[in-house]
Amino acid sequence: MGKSPRTPPTSPGAIVWWRLSRNRPAYWALRVLGILYAVVFFAPILAPYGESSAERTRPYEPPVSWAWSGGPAIRAMERVGGVSRPSEALPHRLAFFVRGDRYDLMPGVTWDRHLFGFAAGGTDRVYLMGADQFGRDVFSRLLYGGRVSLSVGLIGVLISFVLGLWIGGWAGYRGGWTDALLMRGSEILMSIPALYLILALRTAFPASLPSQWTYLMIILILSLVSWTGLGRIVRGMVLSLKTRDYVVAAEALGVPAGRILMRHLLPNTLSFAVVAATIAIPGYILGEVALSFLGVGIQEPAASWGNMLQQASSVSTMEAAPWILWPGVAIFVTVLAFNILGDGLRDALDPRHLDG
Amino acid sequence: MIALILRRLAALIPVLLGISLLTFLLIQLAPGDYLSQMEMDPSVSRESLEAMRQEFGLDRPAWQQYAIYLKNIVVDRDFGFSFSRRQPVITILFESLGNTLILSLAAALLTWLLAIPLGVLAAVRQHSWVDRLASGAGMIGLAIPEVFLALLLMLMAYKTGWFPVNGMRGLDHDSLSWFGQLLDIGHHLVLPALVLATVPLASRMRQMRANLLDVLRADYVTTARAKGLTERRVILRHALPNALNPLITLFGYTIGGLLSGSFLVENVMGWPGLGRVAIEALNTRDLYLVMGSVLMASTVLILGNLVADILLVISDPRIRHGASDG
Asked: Which of A6, A117, A142, B1 has its CA 20 to 30 A from that of A222?
């Protein structure tokens, strides 16, 4: 199938990568995710407008209609009887690297160039995916919202990964009352249906917070809810590992408990934990969507895929402006890609698959 | 077996105690209480505010409030009083839990009735177009966010008029005969149940397919075929029962998952269930209603898991004869 017939590599990490790259769907999923993350990383440049840049005279303006005028161009919209439609006037030429809303390129450095847009001022706008109720560009907000939705998954998984490995490892290694206490605690957390627990945790924080704090709070809540499954499995693995000779030898040599855990026990649970983490990422993305949709997550005017979807919660709005459903498509594509990647990773790490 | 159930039920008590304490602490951590919003309201006098505070017991120290709450549950089976609805919590909860269970059971029914046949079909005709279609639909079903699916179906209902857009009862519900009322609720139930069933349906179908494919490779299936049994009999009598075993356990766990899923569906599609009560109570800081709904939801989840374990003991002879004493 490959271009050059090669023998499979022999180191465990390379085998996993080799199998993964031969799994076409998983490889495509990885590429799609790479593109998505790159796009939201460069969101300020790629987006023609700022996150909350509104044009209140153009609520729910439909997506642009394309034309050609010595280059890609866009027909201006005119309002006739409250309905926007492309005007017959000369199409507006699209310009590249135009000046627009200022943004932070990186901390301390601001820039105002955008990949595309209209050169002249005025109220005409390039609404690639239409506008929302305040005349904000859905495409721009989709890119900015993606920064929240896509990073929540990665950071959240990282935190609960550390929590799960550490708590599960400690409980398994120490045993006794440490184990009993930690495991009963995790049982309590697991016995509350996830969204009830998430919402209950949410009430412990003030109702309105600055947007950066809300973001951190959401990550924290989702990680606190999600470490338990991983923690219990890691505990089980550590329980069976800790009687191995090399652990007993390390103990006999007087290696401190924390070091035994970090150096000798947890590394053995890592490959399982990586798969578990990849499979868990969509849960965080959907968790943020749920919180923001229910109005207790990321607050306007900041964008997230969840709070953008909330604008669509009235059917008459959805019918009149179906383009505000784009965030749903974005979530779907992201979750699909993560699921396919997770499946591929699981197969790649499964030692029973020797066909490679 | 009975000992197992009793022991598990006894283990329920400390867990529920922990849950109630955790919920109580979280609400205490939150700034303000139910009356804080009324303090802003000039039409409510300070005296009546104080009177209400005393009536609700909100003037006492937190640990006393919690102790009284527990005492009332144990002694009088009284789960407190909802501040905002002015009704005993238990009344509100039973009504909304009933609605949630209707929704969850409909979704569970849909899941199992479709997941097993589809999974079997996909496994038996592996690599055929049925298999590809089912696997593709399964991937989509797992990835589509419930909120998005709910919105799409609501839009469809709005445009076609085939189904009610949201809610549980039509405007003319009270004027209908009992049969008409049943049909009315059933009509309202279709879309929320479909949304709720999508994820479990997709994942159970994939599991069913994988299990059956595993079993079909087993030696006893080869033996059955070698004996000259019809393929139909090999699959239905020899392979399927063994492939179903792991899924039976999942039945109980599905119920817990549906409960959490229904939280979102209820709030998007206006189904008057426990999830809606919970979020309303959380938003108004209606202390005992929050406690009650979290406890109620958790109890159902735990009971679902218990049912799963019991089903496993019944269905798997290895556990029945091996570890059932432990």
From this structure: A142
* CB-CB under 8 Å, B147 with A336: no
Residues 79-138 of B with CB under 8 A from A: none
**B62 reaches A (C-beta below 8 A):** no
**Which residue has 């049982």 as its token pair?**
A187
Max CA distance (Å), chain A: 86
Q: Which residues of B23-39 are buried (b: 16+ CB within 10 A; e: fewer)?
A: bbebbeebeebbbeeee
Is residue A125 located within the same domain as residue A153?
no
Would you call B143 and A202 a contact, using CB atoms and an 8 Å cutoff?
A: no
**Both A187 and A93 in a single domain?**
no
Chain B hits for A32, CB-CB cut-off 8 Å, are none
Q: Say if the Cβ atoms of B15 and A191 lie within 8 Å.
A: yes
Which two three-digit tokens encode residue A143?
Answer: 């890119």
Residue in the structure block whose two tokens are 């929320």? B192
User: Other C-beta atoms within 10 Å of A204: how many?
Assistant: 15
For chain A, the domain total comes to: 2
Q: For B19, which DSSP code?
A: H
The domain in which residue A260 lies consists of 140-348
ipTM of the complex: 0.84
d(CA B228, nearest CA chain A) in Å = 31
Domains of chain B as residue ranges with CATH: 12-76 (no CATH), 93-325 (1.10.3720.10)
Q: Is B298 close to A290, i.e. CB distance below 8 A? A: no
- Note the Cα A40 to chain centre separation in Å: 10
Along chain A (356 residues), what's the average pLDDT of each consecutive run of 10 residues? 56 76 85 92 83 77 75 72 69 74 76 74 73 84 90 91 90 88 88 86 80 86 89 88 88 88 85 83 90 85 88 82 90 93 82 52
Q: Please state, in angstroms and rounded to a whole number, the distance separating the CA atoms of residues B220 and B226.
A: 9
A14 within some domain: no
Q: A181 CA to chain B: closest CA distance, Å?
A: 12
pLDDT digits (tens, 9 = 90+) for B114-140: 998 999 989 888 888 888 898 888 889
Is residue A210 left, alpha or beta, with left meaning phi > 0 and alpha meaning psi from -120 to 50?
Answer: beta
Q: How far is CA B101 from the centre of its chain?
A: 7
CA distance A73 to A86: 12
Pairwise CA distance, residues B73 & A296, whole Å: 31
Residue A22 inside a domain? The answer is: no
Helices (H), chain A: 12-22, 24-41, 43-46, 138-174, 176-191, 194-203, 211-241, 245-252, 257-259, 266-293, 305-310, 315-320, 326-349
d(CA B43, CA A285): 43
Distance between CA atoms of residues A275 and B308, nearest Å: 26
Q: For residues B98 and B15, give the distance between their C-alpha atoms in angstroms, rounded to a whole number.
A: 23
Dihedrals φ, ψ of B315, to 5°? Answer: -85, -20
